[in-house]
Every structure is written in structure tokens, then in C-alpha cells.
Specification:
Blueprint: H1 18-22, E1 31-35, H2 40-51, E2 55-59, H3 63-70, E3 76-79, E4 82-83, E5 86-87, H4 92-111
Parallel strand pairs: 1-2, 2-3
Antiparallel strand pairs: 4-5
Amino acid sequence: MLTKQIPIGSGSGASTTASEIISGCDLSGKNAIVTGGYSGIGLEATRALSSAGVKVIVSERDYSKAQTALEGLDGVEIEAMVLGMMPYAVDPEAADRLWSLNEQLLEVGQHD
């Protein structure tokens, strides 16, 4: 059975930027994890969130590429790559920080 799709009228379209999407939202003091946040759409999301005062953690596959792409962005940290739900890192403390942040985000989500 086919279901007819109906536009939801979000006001956003193919040319809408990430900055336009979050304009008017007070995101200061919030945290975000952006996988693939150092290239393509992920990089644009990282830039928009960072400019809105969000602390952004970007998981990486290529640290030097991520470091170059994210240079100069305030509040952005580069962490271990996430494979599925399992983080890995050369530095075990980096994996611990990812798990801890995940737990904090889940707790915040339960209270909102």
C-alpha cells in the first residue's frame, strides 16, 4: 500500500541554511555531538551551532583533516570516532568523556 506524502510546511527548503534554521533559538550553554562534523553538511551544522554558543563535540576519522576544517571555531572539540554506539580512541579518557557526555545528554532529555 502506498501512502501519499504531504508537505508539513516547515518553512524550510533546499536553499535554507543551517544558520537560518537555528536563528531565533537560544542555544547558548547547550551541548551537541556532530558525527561527520568536519565536512559537508556536518561542517555547516557545526559552524551554525558553534556560532550560536553551543559546545560542539565532533567525532573524527581523520584528525588532521578535522583539525584543519574546524580551525578558528569557538567551543568545538574533536573527539574519538564513533562506530555505531561504541566509541574508540587512542586515549581511553576520550572514550570516557564521550560516554559521560552521552549520559548527561540523556538525563537532560528526560527532564525537558
